[in-house]
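subagent[fold] <- orchestrator: predict structure for attached chain, return tokens only, no commentary.
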Amino acid sequence: MKLEIDSFSGYRIYPSKGKLFVRGDSKIFRFASSKNASLFLQRKNPRKIAWTQVYRRMHKKGVTEEVAKKRSRRAVKHQRGIVGADLAAIAAKRNQTAAVRTQARLAAIQKAKTEKKEKESKKPKPATRAPVSTAPKVSKQQMKGGKGGR
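subagent[fold] -> orchestrator:
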């Protein structure tokens, strides 16, 4: 036995009972009673009508079985090392004070500066080029000849 569901109220419709309404876009609506059909045609919202199944489901009416809520498990936080730093190194950095951190930073900057100076002093300086000529400067256009020398 095939039971249909009322499109408006959500009630069961037994075989040979109820009405079938086919809208212009060929969508089928089934109604258990003329009351449901009438309210549907008046464009009433079944969510706002207290006796419909949709309303009852929305407002959690008559649901006695699901009283005990399912408890969700809390995520347990773990400390893990990252690539390039194990857990001990991360913990040590976290426990450092701000003063120690700034000192380490300044020392690293100083070290980098001294290394850069040493590198530059080892590099031979390129000799400065002698001036090419003292002739008046000529643009590329003038060198080509063109209309410029009329």
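orchestrator: received. Logging for downstream: The chain has a mean pLDDT of 86. The first helix runs from residue 34 to 41.
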